[in-house]
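Q: My labmate handed me this sequence with no annotations at all. I'd like to see what the chain might look like in three dimensions before we decide whether it's worth expressing. Could you predict it?
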Amino acid sequence: MNLIGAIDQGTSSTRLIVFESGTCNVVAQHQVEVQQFFPKEGWVEQDPMELVNSVNTCIDNVVIQLQNKNIPLSSIKGIGLTNQRETTIVWNRLTGQPVHPAIVWCDARNSQQVKNLSDKFGQDVLRSKCGLPIATYFSATKLLWLWENVPQVKELADVGNLLFGTVDSWLLWNLTGAVKDGVHLTDVTNASRTMLMNLRSLAWDQELLDFFRIPINILPEIRPSSGNFGCLKGGKLDGVQITGVVGDQQAALLGQGCTRKGEAKSTYGTGCFMLYNTGSDLVESTNGLLTTVAYQNQGEPPSYALEGSVAVAGSSVRWLRDNLGIIRESSEVSELAAQVEKTDGVYFVPAFSGLFAPHWRSDARGVLCGLTGHTTKQHICRAVLEATCFQVKEIFEAMKADSKSDPSSLLVDGGMTASKVLLQLQANLLGVEVHKPAFSEVTALGAAVAAGVYLNLWKAGQKVEDVEIYRSSIDSAEQSRKLDRWRMALERSLGWDLQSQ
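A: Here is what I predict for the chain of 501 residues:
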């Protein structure tokens, strides 16, 4: 039996799943939750060492499971890695120690840097090269904040001892030896989220580096998503090859089997992300979406995608649990939402760190509208779920406009899709069928696909069987009424210039 391991390091948790190659059959798995820290308004941090330790914990536990099943560890032929994208880590090349906590993708501390650059050059000045607007979301603007606010970052860079990476690069470096010859690599999907890679050449672009004043010697080498990323060093899986690296949303695209032009999926996790495969066509959005790399196999040209990114989806449920105490377990949000048939006029805009696609407004902040003396926690929970669905509706319409297509269904995955209430609300607002595969871990599956393809142990493009289908249960008039109210709430979230307060 040939096995492929998949490390999935996300914003909320880390897991390792071992698959029987070419299938969805899970042989062993382990998951641990990782902490997020919110030291100031708009700031979201993680401990880079905790991320590494969480991966090692997962490896140790999976090894025990395999040994208990008398499965030889030599059955694992390769490891794939998928990760939260854009999250920015800088570390000392000599000591291996992080210089600063990881700045998470949804962190908005760089709002002033983004405003200054956008006011001076225009938000879309770099889109033709990197496919992205100047926004708080992307790694380059986070690096710029570190450059201007953490003196040690520039000091280490000046003497050649600073390394930068997104989470994939940080984990690869540590898993392959760290200060003892750890590899400093990334893949094209993660590099395409930094604002520093040219989408056409798939290489770091000197003009983009000069724009952000970033030296090239701190950056990892860019490689195709399926390829050689070194071997694990130390531990029970010492010597196992890492043969696939892909950003989490592109991994979900692979896991869903959306490898052909015109196929799309939407992942409902900490944030929510819809990707539409445009094949070899590099499509520049005119509707607020992003142009990104979908995937590249070694020795082959890349596939591209249009992406709509929502900053806050599942994290709004975590907010209800951890900040407000309205629920004790995340699953309760769906149970409470199901106890009422509608929100009774309550609308929630979860712009905790601004709005991403298609608005790109870093000055937006969260609002809860339409409260009355009749409002209960059930109405609020339903409004929280509905808010994710409204945001997906917006990027779905933008996707249709950019791709000039009219899809009749949408493939979905991610932790929030455990909620039947959310899936029905989504079908109601989209007006098309929502298809949810029975196998839920499609992001990890995509990492396994990327690793297995390189080893000739997997064929990309396989669809997950056994799909649950949701259809709209409201008419177009009700859909329009709800969308009008959503737009009113959205308007009220804009213009909160907290930097000056």
